[in-house]
Amino acid sequence: MKVCLNGGRSREDHPAVPLTPAELAASAAAAVAAGAEAVHLHPRRADGGESLLPADVAAAVTTVRQACPATPVGVSTGLWITGRDPAARRSAVAAWAGLPADARPDFASVNLSEPGWADLCGLLAPAGIAAEAGIWSPADADQLTAAGQAIDWLRILVEITNASAGQATVAADEILHCLDELGTAVPRLLHGEGPACWPLIAHAGALRLPTRIGLEETTVGPGGATVDGNAELVRLALQIWTASTAP
Predict the structure, then answer these.
(1) CA-based, 20 to 30 A from 23: which of 8, 12, 100, 214?
(2) How far is 163 from 140, CA to CA, in rounded Å?
(3) What confidence score (pLDDT) does residue 148 get?
């Protein structure tokens, strides 16, 4: 179970969305105590906006790692964070290699639907940062295969971001089937956002796949009630995932 602390959300989305390094660290520690085994976060600038700049990444990662010293910490490389400018993203991520080792993330998610993703992976590997492949569609899966063995992926994130609760598992199975057909053996993590979130927690459990949860994914529990924060989401998700693994 990975916890996704904040994503692109603001306090307007939920009052417990962590933004500052100290808030991220406190939320991460609570989520890990609740059962999360990895942390994913979106570092922020002083004004609360998402950032890939090395100083912002270092501040968030270092503080969270101090609070959760045995837990892997990862970040996003979403192209929207740099206003969809691949050159600006490349420049920011390239600078991560110059950070102290304890300020560099353990892993970073790379969306294969975005231009420049292969180049980005070429920057992460020499810095000792593992890459997760964000697969949002069968077309993304085809790109993964086209890259062949050139990239040593940590895992594949099968991400359903634009589906209703009723269509979530169908969309996920289409991508999973495509990955099976392509013969990729990279470990997979299955998750969804918004209405797709909770059905896919259960589906991941039934398939015995890792999953993720957090305020990035949803601000409400499976019954629709607003949650207190990331730790509550982790507890609820683990209950559903575990129940779904039963024969």
Answers:
(1) 100
(2) 17
(3) 64
